[in-house]
Design a protein that fits this description.
Blueprint: H1 2-32, E1 58-60, H2 96-113, H3 119-134, H4 138-171, H5 176-201, H6 206-226, H7 230-244, H8 247-256, H9 261-289, E2 297-299, E3 303-305, H10 307-314, H11 317-326, H12 333-338, H13 342-359, E4 369-372, H14 378-386, H15 392-417, H16 422-452, E5 456-459, E6 462-464, E7 467-468, E8 472-478, E9 481-483, E10 486-498, E11 501-503, E12 506-513, E13 516-518, E14 521-523, E15 526-530, E16 537-538, E17 541-543, E18 546-548, H17 558-561, H18 565-575, H19 577-591, H20 593-607, H21 617-645, H22 651-675, H23 682-699
Parallel strand pairs: 5-8, 6-9, 7-10, 8-10, 9-11, 10-12, 10-13, 11-14, 12-15, 13-16, 14-17, 15-18
Antiparallel strand pairs: 1-4, 2-3
Helix pairs in contact: 1-2, 3-13, 4-5, 4-8, 4-9, 4-10, 4-11, 5-6, 5-7, 5-8, 5-22, 6-7, 6-8, 6-10, 6-11, 8-22, 9-18, 9-19, 9-21, 16-21, 16-22, 16-23, 18-21, 19-20, 19-21, 20-21, 20-23, 21-22
């Protein structure tokens, strides 16, 4: 036993000597790195003068500040004076600092192997090294929560109109065309918003544009909840969509620029989970608020604030919370470096570094970056000239015109760049949003068929001197005669009178829904305080008939009209993506973005064939959950690869352009798929399957970006 212990001690000392030798080699390589030579020891500020220095202008101090005698070095962290090893070394696990140093040394060798690197490539390599030194911790998680709320607001926006429409159509008495336009206007607004804010974010700033976009969304959502007319309501919903349309391209571009390469795929995938949370949030508050018709107030007949308006108001809370959180978040330092704002970028990076290491219990760690050399662009010089010439108004006009030109140039340049991802985006959006509309419409169609099968038909009935004081529902009266009858204080739901005679009848306090009179003769009849207006009488002959105090709008009891099934379907569809979100986050960096996207889209294509077996409402809900759970991995992969394919100067613009195209494909898909509801299931299923297969195969042709430094 004594001999074995001696051998173990000898092995331990030998291994420790080997580690120290490796440490000295790593330090010698770092000292030989050209970036080290750019540090100016004489700089009074401690971090040098920007724009000067060595070959890359990116300086690290050669060592941390002098430590106490019993302090451990970074490479041998976990070793005390008795040469004890940290726990992972017993299992042969390298120390994290060793891994970081080895990865940086490999990138340094790769840089030296290249004859000439562009300034953008140099900045990308430098920035990656800085973000690695800053670590991943409290700052990124705080930003994660704030940007997650903004992404959640985007998800809620997609559900607002769908949930509020069944009640809003009765409150404002909307026709089918008006209902269709209301659902369309939200996607149109989001399409224009993505296009506008994506381009602005690359020139004005991620944080600033996101704050403006969310402010527009909050204000427009608030005003839309009080809008009484259809025109004003659709106008405010359009601007609400324009505001929230900028959230997706800005959020992913913004967050990715605070993540190091080995954590980018995973944490961007976790961020996608907030879209699911937004769907669950919208479903819950819709179920809790809208059926409660008493949650509201009215001021006469001209101003009504029913429960669905309360729901629209509450849906703005995630955007408001994100807006408040953004006030405490800094601008993206990568954006600032692209625009030669070195001092601001350095201060933000130091803030990230200090926040993370202080939270990890290592406040003694010093931010060792001395310089970041960034080329000054012509547009920055032009802006500086403008800031010192002319009046304030002239400078504002020139800067605004210049900004519009720069955004336009960037958009034109990105039109060619986005062709790599564009087909994949279009295919996935077309099939996903098309089926997202098709699923609930098919459920409504099955409900309607079941309701129609229970209709009661009355032929040639003759009713005289009768007082109707009970509600009429799901009935068809053909060739009837109603003489000297009274219809007082009743509700009519899905009632139709065909080729009938009404003579000396009296209608008072009638609330109706889907009720019509067709080819009827109405003589000496009075309609008092009813909602039976001209559109309800189709090809009818009126003789000595009077209408008094006809009510505007639709006044059927909302509490009986709201079907909670629509909330349940949306809730289950949103919850079903949870497993897909978790799997994609855990394996995004392991199997790669391309395999994740291609595999998810191809498996989703196979799932669409199960829709041929959707003969009941329960079956449709089950296949919807399966499809959403599988396809979400493709969505997460697309979001990740999009921010990695494009450089920082065009990242948000390219993402916004792709997202705008996505909304256009969503409009086409939902319109085409909805037109086949009740006609055939074959066309929607084959269209979605073909689109997903093509998109999945195209995705496999994309370049893998898993180990690519963010440009």
């Amino acid at each position: 036993m004594g001999m074995q212990k001696t051998n173990d001690d000898t092995s331990l000392k030998f291994y420790t000597i080997f580690l120290r030798f490796a440490e000295s080699q790593i330090k010698s390589e770092i000292m030989a790195d050209p970036y080290q030579n750019s540090y100016h020891h004489g700089d009074p500020d401690g971090y040098g003068t920007y724009g000067e220095g060595g070959q890359d202008g990116y300086g690290y101090q050669t060592d941390y500040p002098p430590q106490e005698e019993d302090a451990a070095s970074d490479v041998t962290e976990g070793h005390d004076e008795d040469d004890q090893m940290y726990e992972g070394e017993y299992q042969g696990i390298p120390h994290p600092d060793e891994i970081k140093a080895a990865r940086r040394a490999a990138r340094t060798k790769a840089r030296t192997a290249v004859d000439a690197m562009s300034e953008q490539e140099e900045l990308a390599e430098q920035y990656e090294d800085i973000i690695e030194d800053c670590g991943h911790g409290r700052f990124q998680w705080s930003l994660f929560m704030v940007l997650g709320l903004a992404l959640m607001a985007d998800s809620v926006e997609c559900f607002v109109v769908a949930f509020a429409l069944p009640s809003a159509e009765k409150d404002m008495c909307l026709s089918n065309a008006e209902k269709g336009m209301l659902g369309l206007i939200v996607f149109l607004g989001m399409m224009f918003g993505a296009f506008i804010w994506g381009g602005m974010a690359d020139k004005v700033g991620r944080r600033k544009c996101l704050i403006i976009a969310l402010s527009i969304n909050c204000i427009a959502a608030f005003l839309s909840s009080f809008a009484q007319g259809y025109g004003s309501f659709i106008f405010f919903r359009l601007f609400s969509g324009i505001g929230i349309g900028g959230s997706v391209p800005i959020v992913y571009s913004y967050f990715s620029e605070f993540l190091q390469m080995d954590k980018r795929g995973e944490h961007l995938s976790w961020l996608c989970m907030f879209w699911m949370i937004g769907g669950i949030y919208a479903s819950f508050i819709a179920w809790g608020i809208i059926p409660r018709y008493g949650w509201g107030f009215s001021m006469g007949t001209e101003f009504q604030f029913h429960s669905w308006r309360v729901f629209v108001l509450v849906c703005a809370l995630p955007a408001i919370a994100a807006l408040i959180g953004l006030m405490f978040m800094p601008e993206s330092p990568r954006f600032l470096l692209e625009h030669a704002k070195h001092d601001e970028a350095w201060m933000i990076l130091k803030q990230v570094h200090d926040t993370n290491w202080r939270a990890k219990g290592e406040p003694e760690r010093v931010f060792t970056v001395s310089q970041i050399k960034t080329p000054k662009t012509q547009e920055d010089e032009f802006f500086e000239i403008q800031s010192s010439t002319g009046t304030a108004f002239q400078r504002w006009v020139v800067r605004t015109v210049t900004l519009v030109k720069l955004v336009r140039m960037c958009l034109c340049d990105c039109v060619l760049r986005v062709q790599v991802c564009l087909p994949m985006f279009v295919m996935l959006c077309f099939s996903y949003y098309g089926l997202a509309v098709w699923f609930p419409d098919m459920i409504k169609h099955l409900q309607y068929e079941e309701y129609e099968s229970k209709v009661k038909v009355f032929h040639g009935e003759k009713v005289e001197r009768f007082h109707f004081n009970f509600s009429l529902e799901n009935q068809v009266h053909k060739g009837g005669e109603y003489i000297n009858d009274k219809f007082v204080n009743i509700e009519m739901k899905s009632v139709k009178f065909e080729s009938s005679l009404f003579e000396d009848c009296y209608f008072e306090d009638i609330k109706s829904s889907d009720t019509f009179f067709e080819n009827c003769t109405i003589r000496s009849t009075v309609f008092y305080n009813t909602d039976l207006y001209e559109e309800r009488f189709i090809d009818c002959r009126m003789e000595n008939t009077s209408f008094f105090h006809t009510k505007k709008g639709c006044h059927l009891n909302f509490a009986e009209e709201n079907d909670v099934l629509i909330y349940l379907v949306s809730f289950l569809g949103s919850l079903a993506v949870l497993p897909g979100n978790i799997i994609s986050a855990l394996f995004m960096d392991k199997i790669g973005r391309i395999r994740m996207i291609g595999g998810s889209m191809l498996i989703s294509a196979g799932c669409t064939f199960f829709l041929f077996m959707s003969f009941s409402q329960a079956a449709i809900i089950a296949w919807q959950c399966l499809f959403c759970g599988v396809s979400v991995a493709a969505w997460n992969g697309i979001e990740v690869i999009t921010v990695e394919l494009y450089p920082a100067s065009k990242r948000a613009t390219a993402f916004g352009l792709l997202n705008a195209t996505c909304k256009l494909a969503a409009i086409l898909g939902s319109s085409i798929f909805a037109s086949f509801v009740g006609i055939t299931k074959v066309v929607p299923i084959l269209l979605s399957c073909a689109a997903l297969v093509c998109g999945g195969l195209l995705a496999l042709k994309l370049p893998e970006t898993r180990e690519k430094v963010l440009q």
